[in-house]
Amino acid sequence: MFSPAELSIVFVESIKSFIKNNHIIYSAALAYYGIFASIPMLILAALLLVGYFTSSMGAIDGLKRIISIVLPQQQDIILKEVYTLSSLKGSWGVVGVIACVWSITPLMSTLRVVFANIFKEDKRRSFFIGMAIDVVIVFLFLLILISLVVGEIVYSHLLAVIFNRIPFVYQIIGLSTNLLISIVALIAFFYVLIPVRTGFWNIFAGVLVTSLSWSVVKPTFAYFVVANPHFGFAFGSLKAILVIILWVYMSFFILLIGVEFTANMHRKGIVSLKYLIETHRSGKIHNDMLYKYARSYRADTVIFQSGDTAVEMYYILSGAVQITENGHTISELREGHIFGETGMLLHSNRTKTAAAVSDNTILLPINSEDFDTLSKNDPQMVLLLLKEIARKLARSQVILFYF
Question: Which residue has the higher pLDDT, 197 or 54?
Answer without folding.
Answer: 197
